[in-house]
Structures are given as C-alpha cells and as structure tokens.
Amino acid sequence: MSAVPTSVGRAATRGSYAWKKTLPTLKPRSNAAPTTMQGIDPSHNQPMGSWSNEQIGASVKENVMLTWAPSKMKNNLPIITHGEGVYLWDSNGKKYLDWTSQAVCTNGGHTVSENIKSAVAEQLDRTPFVYGGMAMCEVRARLSNIISSVLPEGLTGCAFPSSGSEANEAAITMARRYTGKTKIINWYRSYHGGTTNSLEATGDFRRWYIQPPPGFVKAHNPNPYFFEFAGATEEEKTEMSLLMLEEQILYEGADHVACIMLESIPGAAGVLTLPEGYMQGVRALCDKYGILLHLDEVMVGFGRTGNMWGFQHYDGVVPDIVTSAKGLSSSITPISMVAVSDKMMEFFEENPMGWGSTFQAHPVAMAAAYANIKEMLSNDVIGHVQEMAPIFEAHMKECASSHPSIKQYRAAGLFGALDIVSPDGTQPHHFNAPRTEATAAYAKAFNEVGLIGLFRPPVIHIAPPLIINEAEIKEGFEKQHQALDVLDKALGY
Ligand SMILES: Cc1ncc(COP(=O)(O)O)c(C=O)c1O
C-alpha cells in the first residue's frame, strides 16, 4: 500500500499568501453634463434654418460621423436646406436634380403631399407610439392588409422593422427557424445591408468589415464580372449558371440550405438585369430541394423598375419571403417590411420569429408608409414609370453610345447603370478602391453641373424619383452628358 500523501508544505511567505492587488485605479474624469437648456449653447434656441454655414460646419467637424466613408469626407458634403419635387437646394443656393433619389429611396421626390403630412400628424395626435409586442393599432392592420393586397396571392404575413438591413436580418432568422436548416446562399455581386447577418449575406466588399458569422455561402451571379458562362445563346448561358448553382446546392448539402436569398435585380452592384429564364430556374431548384426563395426588394420594390416588385419581371415566380424598405414610405420615415408565405405565417403563429426591435411596427413610420402606398396607387405611379421607361432607356443608350468612357448600360423602369471603362478596356477602378484622379474629377463635375447622387465607381447609377417627368429626365441627362465629357477627358480618351 502506498503511503497516503501528506499535505504539501507551504514555503514560508512574506505577508499574506495571496498576491498584492494589481487592480488599476480610475483616473477620474467629470461625467457631468447639462440636464436643462441652461447649460446648452444658446444658439440651439434659434429656429431651425437659422444657423450659418460656419455654425453648421463647426458642429459637423466636431460631432458628426459618416458610416461607409471615412468621416472627414463629411466636410465636403453640401448642406441641404430644402427640396421640391425632384430637386434639392443647398445652403449656397445651388440647385441639384436628385439623380439617384438619394440612396434609391426618395421615390416620391422631395415634396410631401398634404395627405401624407396629415396622415403622419393624425397618428402623432392619436398616439405616437405603442410597442408592437404589447398592443395593436389600426394603422398596423391596414398597412399589413394593403401590402398583402399588392403582393401575389399566398404572401400574407407582414412585419415592419425599421431598415432594409433589419428586414433581411429578420428574414434570415425566420428562414432558419422555419426550415431548421442554417445555410443561406447569396450572390457575390449583391448588397443586403449593414447589420451582421445582412452584411455577411452581402457579396460586395462591405462584407469584409465584419468578422463573418457562419452559414453564408456565396454563389456567382449569372452575370459575373470577368467572365461569361459558356454557351452560344442566352438560354445556354442561363442553363450553365443554373447547373453551377445546382452543383453548389448539392455540395453544400440541400439538407443544410435554408434559403436562397437574392436581390430580384441587384441594385448597388449595378442594376444587373437577369438573363431570361434564370429566376424561374432558381425557383424550380428551390422547389426541387426544399429550399426557401427569399427575394430582397429593398431597392427595387414599390415601382422602381416599372412593376410593383422586381420579381414580377419573371413570369411564374413567387418567392417565399419578400423584404423591402426605401420606397415603402418613400423614405419619409424609416420603415421596412418582411412578407412571408401563408405556410411560414402559420408556423410563426405557434413559434416566435426570433427577431425583434423596440421600433418595429412604429405607428408614425407605418402611417407615412400607409399614406405613401395609397398615394402611389391612386396616382398610378407605376403606370407613370412604365411611360417614362422607354424615354429613360433611350437616354441611357445615348450615354453609352456617345461617350467612350461608357462600356455599356442596363436599365429597368427608372433604374439604370452605366459601366465605366478605361481606354485599354479594363475597369478604371474597383469597388473598394479609393477614387482615382479621373473618378474624382467626374464626381466633382457631377455636382458642379447640378446633379446630386450616389457614385460607386466603376458604376454610375441613375435612379431619379419615380415622379420625374419627361422634361426633367431630359434636363438630367443633359447634365449627365456634361459630367461624362469630363470623365472621357480625365480617362484620356
Ligand atoms: C437590396 C438591398 N437590400 C438591403 C439594403 C439595406 O437597407 P438599409 O440601408 O435600409 O438597411 C439595401 C440598401 O441599399 C439594398 O439595396
């Protein structure tokens, strides 16, 4: 029998056995701040619109941060004082035509109708807020109902987050919970939002900003950047890209893929209109393998491309999940939507969605969206877009044919993109690269000629408010040509 070990002797200690404390001590800073207007700069009591450019500029410099761009760029942004129709004015009195509806979202332009104003004011009078998990309000029932009415049959359940990113976040969670599967397939050339899952669903460079959450699989778009799918005809190319997608599903394991989540027409990536038959093929693959189809309509929903929904360009295709935002309220209030199939709705009658937010189903945001949709329908905005579309496309074509710096154009409704090309046939600029001298010269000229809009080289997006008329389209393209003349020269043509 081995001896039972005796207790281990402690060596002689100096003082206590424990080590001397090392916790740092706080270097105190005052955390006091004013709690009444008394401690606040008295200029805050002046009416809105009365601060000078210098006052605004000083606070912008000190206190304002940008998001996707380095913040110091804020100091060069115009200070917008007011807007009317498709126009905006800055604090120096300069007038701009809003050539991309800001972030492809101010679809109704910059004049808010009396109907929408009174709908918002009325909701503020009734009750500005009730929490969506605690109480219902009439506007929520009405908005859900009207959205379900403008969607194809079978898409019945609606929820209202505050941004497109959140709508996609909710949809991703719902797809996973409904199917019990985890993988989501998205395209490389895509953008789905800035929150964690939505950003990982994104294919463009913005995805690189985060630590990737698991479960997102990237597929090539049917229109990749540097190559084309093999085949003599568009039909054959479509078939090739679908076969590649099917193979990817098989190797990811159909039993693991919850959802294929795509933009109906990728917008930020450059209005990538899809080859004939492609989306029908994706729907058929989803049905074959028990995968949900989620179409992201955040940018193209509510009439941008001449149909209420982008997916209505694809005969016979009904998604299981639709997300949208932007045009839902014409961006008067921050609101987005997720709509799901009746089967999914039934599942979530018994199960929590797994997503939530204090501001989801915000009554004031919903009141603006509800009034906006009714106004869109009453004024037949979609009919107007269809009428303007051929005029818009003729101008897009003219840009591509008359400027050597433009390789090609794509257009759908009032949504268009021009691809910039260098004299040697390459792209002058990749998406994530800082601006080159040529693209910076173009951006400066674009503002100088009186246009304001997004610019994500090597693509030039054109997406004016949907209420634009023929004369304003002509005016916008005249200015666009002037800016493109500068680009032609800057690129060395
Ligand atoms: C297709 C698409 N999905 C999602 C988003 C994200 O929407 P939000 O910026 O409202 O979060 C965008 C924004 O541009 C988008 O274009």
Automatic annotation (TrEMBL):
Keyword Chaperone: no
Gene Ontology cellular component terms for the protein in this record: cytosol
A Gene Ontology molecular function term of the record: pyridoxal phosphate binding
Biased composition (Polar residues): 32-47
Keywords noted in UniProt: Pyridoxal phosphate
Domain of life of the organism encoding this protein: Eukaryota
Database matches in SUPFAM superfamilies: PLP-dependent transferases
UniProt xrefs under Pfam families: Aminotran_3
Region (Disordered) residue spans: 19-47
Family: Belongs to the class-III pyridoxal-phosphate-dependent aminotransferase family.
Protein name per UniProt: Uncharacterized protein
Taxonomic classification: Eukaryota, Sar, Stramenopiles, Ochrophyta, Bolidophyceae
